[in-house]
Design a protein that fits this description.
By secondary structure, the chain is an alpha+beta fold. It has helices at about 50-55, 65-75; strands at about 5-10, 15-20, 25-30, 35, 45, 60-65, 85, 90-95.
């Protein structure tokens, strides 16, 4: 599985955006939430799972969209499964590292 990652630096730290490659460019609309993966915010570079894991170590904020992206965070114990948001069957999670 490949991912699209974007890295955005702010004065609060690095924001890492990780999206499953196969859902890029799509929109998913739920009752209270819209995942618009066509936006510039999600565009970035293609990375492998191992590369994404390494990027997790450098980020202060992590924004994850897609089954494989969220699975990495679960595998690395970065998130609790109960905190995952679901929009039309697509998981989404956000992490703030201390």
């Amino acid at each position: 599985m490949n991912f699209i990652t974007a890295q955005k630096q702010s004065h609060h730290g690095l924001l890492l955006v990780v999206t499953d490659f196969d859902i890029m460019g799509k929109k998913f609309e739920g009752k209270k939430m819209l995942l618009d993966l066509t936006k510039e915010f999600y565009k970035g570079e293609r990375k492998t799972k191992e590369e994404v894991k390494q990027l997790f170590l450098t980020a202060r904020y992590i924004h994850l969209t897609g089954k494989a992206a969220v699975a990495i965070a679960l595998e690395m114990d970065y998130i609790n499964a109960e905190k995952i948001l679901w929009v039309k069957g697509i998981p989404h999670a956000e992490i703030v590292s201390e």
